[in-house]
Every structure is written in structure tokens, then in C-alpha cells.
């Protein structure tokens, strides 16, 4: 589907858990807008992290959705931070089918100390929570395909600034990012928007002789328009994302493309863990046991997989026969 946004928005357009690609035709600036409700609510409530960690992980989940949708790939896109502060890790990944998951790693003692000594938690910066470290995004298309990875230091006021900084320094691509996360009536919601200007990407300005100053002016105007989007607008499921795009960018001749759904889900399985057990030595297997069994818990979804001696012996027998 390929439609110019106006008043005749199709009623079947998704309200929640959706990624909407779009193009500002007058300038050639492309973008994505994501709005998540049930999917992100299920992920965050499952983990029961402190509020401020949920907000940070919610940002990562929203960023994962918008960034992965910019790329053409078959496999998995991962956004992960590692650092030395109270929030030591944030990780989220999305498959090319739109299946999303995420979790965080916390130093609970350090986080409690930080929150106890900070009266207004909203004043805490990104690096107050994470300390020094980096955030990496990886595209993995399987063992026979080359992996793509980008890395940028954790710095600035928020994760969006980190991502913008990466594209500016590494790819020299004008990129603007907006993310909001909030708990409304007891349910988590998140929204994200990204704008990029990639020379040669399409649009009216590819057929005209705009100079560098005009292109810069186009970009600055688009960034101002995006920044005018309020948190309520970005998260309001009663305001269709197509209507929001028209409200923000109608003078830029905004055109929308096929929507993509976002689904919460995990790729863990007993079979995958069994295959891991088959590849390690008997000594390693013994080191994994607690009270005589291997009890592995998925950090993403919380499912537990238990292997007792009989199950382990059967796996080892399969390995010997293979």
C-alpha cells in the first residue's frame, strides 16, 4: 500500500503495536513511527522492574522497533547496552517478522542507593543510571551471512541522543529520534519516531536542483515539526498514527506505506537448550547442576527448563549415537 495521508484514512489501520513507515515527499526525508500498547505492557509487567528501569527499557524497546524497521533484513535486530552503573545492561531484539522482547540487568544495591539519595527521580540522567559504557546494535541474519554491528558510547541525556550521535558520526546521515514512554491507567505505553535524510533515497528534491542550504533548511523544518509532537499525541491510541503524521507533516506531502505489526514473543525453547547441553563436556554439565538438576530460566520471558539426570543421559546418548 502506498497512500498520501489525508482525511480518508482507512479504518482498518492498527491503533496499537504498529510500525508505520512514511516519506515526506517534498524533501525526500523518510521516517518511521511506532506506537506500542499491549506488547510493551506485557514485556514490562512480566519483569516487574522499578519504575525508572521500566521507562528506560521501554525506550530501548521503542528504539528497537523503529531502528529495525529502517533495515531490510531476514533475521534478528538487537539493541544492547553494557555499562558499569546501577543499570548494567539493557537488551531488546526484534525479528524481521516483528516479534519483540527485552530485559534489563540491574545492580539492585547500587540502584537502591541512587534512588534513595535522589528526591526527584525524573532529574536522573541516562549516565546517572547506566554509568560508563556503550550501546550496540546488531543485525544477525544467520550463520552464513555477515553480521552488521554499530557501537556508540552511552552519553547525553537519553538513549535517543546516543542513536542520533551514532548516525551523525559513523554514517554521516541526518537522523532525528523522538521517544516517549509512560504508564497510563496502570498500563505501559510507548511511542517512537525517527526521521532520516539519505541522499538519493527518493522524494521531490531528488528531481530538483536544491542546494545544500535548502536541504539543510528542509531538515531543520522537519526536525522542528517532529519535536512539536507531544507525549500525549505520540501515545494516544485514539489518534491514529496516520492522522498524527498528517497533523505534523501535511505541508511536507507525507506519504504512508504498509504498516507492520509488533508482537511480544520469545524465541527460547527446551530444544534450543537441549542442543547446548549436547555440545558441552560432562564436566561442564555437572557444573551447571543445582540440587542435581539443570534448571535454566530465560531472562526474557521467565520460562524455566529443567533437565534431570535421566533427561541429560538421554541427550548424551543422542550425541554418542550421532
Radius of gyration: 22 Å
Low-confidence regions: 6-11
Summing up helix and strand content along with how strands pair, one would put the structural category as: alpha+beta
SSE sequence, one letter per element: EEEHHEEEHHEEHEEHHHEEEHHEEH
Q: Tell me the strand percentage band.
A: 25-35%
List the helices and strands and how they pair.
Blueprint: E1 2-4, E2 18-24, E3 29-36, H1 38-47, H2 51-69, E4 76-83, E5 87-95, E6 99-106, H3 108-116, H4 126-130, E7 133-140, E8 148-153, H5 159-171, E9 174-184, E10 187-197, H6 212-227, H7 231-235, H8 241-249, E11 254-257, E12 260-261, E13 263-264, H9 270-279, H10 282-288, E14 294-297, E15 304-307, H11 309-321
Salient structural properties:
7-stranded antiparallel β-sheet; single chain; 11 helices; about 325 residues; alpha+beta
Written account of the structure:
A hairpin with a 3-residue loop joins strand 4 (76-83) and strand 5 (87-95). This protein is globular. It has helices at 38-47, 51-69, 108-116, 126-130, 159-171, 212-227, 231-235, 241-249, 270-279, 282-288, 309-321, and strands spanning 2-4, 18-24, 29-36, 76-83, 87-95, 99-106, 133-140, 148-153, 174-184, 187-197, 254-257, 260-261, 263-264, 294-297, 304-307. By secondary structure, the protein is of the alpha+beta class. The strands form 3 sheets. Strands 1, 2, 3, 9, 10, 11 and 12 form a 7-stranded antiparallel sheet that branches. It has a 6-stranded mixed sheet with strand order 8-7-4-5-6-13. Strands 14-15 form a two-stranded antiparallel ribbon. Residues 6-11 have low confidence and may be disordered.
Amino acid at each position: 500500500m502506498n497512500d498520501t495521508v489525508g482525511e480518508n484514512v482507512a479504518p482498518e489501520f492498527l491503533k496499537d503495536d504498529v510500525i508505520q513507515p512514511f516519506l515526506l515527499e517534498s524533501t525526500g526525508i523518510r521516517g518511521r513511527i511506532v506506537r506500542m500498547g499491549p506488547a510493551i505492557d506485557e514485556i514490562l509487567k512480566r519483569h516487574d522492574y522499578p519504575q525508572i528501569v521500566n521507562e528506560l527499557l521501554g525506550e530501548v524497546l521503542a528504539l528497537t522497533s523503529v531502528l529495525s524497521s529502517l533495515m531490510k533484513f531476514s533475521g534478528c535486530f538487537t539493541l544492547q547496552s553494557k555499562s558499569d552503573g546501577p543499570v548494567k545492561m539493557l537488551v531488546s531484539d526484534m525479528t524481521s517478522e516483528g516479534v519483540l522482547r527485552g530485559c534489563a540487568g540491574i545492580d539492585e544495591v547500587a540502584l537502591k542507593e541512587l534512588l534513595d539519595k535522589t528526591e526527584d527521580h525524573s532529574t536522573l540522567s541516562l549516565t546517572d543510571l547506566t554509568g560508563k559504557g556503550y550501546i550496540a546494535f546488531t543485525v544477525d541474519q544467520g550463520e552464513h551471512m555477515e553480521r552488521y554491528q554499530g557501537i556508540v558510547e552511552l552519553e547525553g541525556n537519553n538513549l535517543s541522543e546516543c542513536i542520533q550521535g551514532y548516525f551523525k558520526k559513523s554514517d554521516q546521515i541526518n537522523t532525528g529520534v523522538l521517544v516517549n514512554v509512560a504508564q497510563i491507567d496502570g498500563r505501559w505505553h510507548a511511542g517512537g519516531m525517527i526521521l532520516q535524510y539519505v541522499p538519493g533515497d527518493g522524494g521531490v528534491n531528488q528531481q530538483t536542483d536544491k542546494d545544500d542550504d535548502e536541504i539543510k533548511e528542509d531538515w531543520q523544518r522537519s526536525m522542528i515539526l517532529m519535536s512539536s509532537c507531544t507525549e500525549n499525541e505520540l501515545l494516544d491510541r485514539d489518534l491514529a498514527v496516520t492522522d498524527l503524521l498528517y497533523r505534523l507533516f501535511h505541508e511536507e506531502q507525507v506519504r504512508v506505506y504498509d504498516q507492520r505489526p509488533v508482537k511480544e514473543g520469545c524465541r527460547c525453547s527446551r530444544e534450543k537448550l537441549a542442543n547446548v547441553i549436547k555440545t558441552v563436556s560432562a564436566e561442564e554439565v555437572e557444573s551447571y547442576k543445582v540440587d542435581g538438576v539443570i534448571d535454566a530460566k530465560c531472562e526474557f520471558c521467565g520460562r524455566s527448563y529443567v533437565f534431570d539426570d535421566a533427561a541429560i543421559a538421554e541427550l548424551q546418548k543422542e550425541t554418542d549415537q550421532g
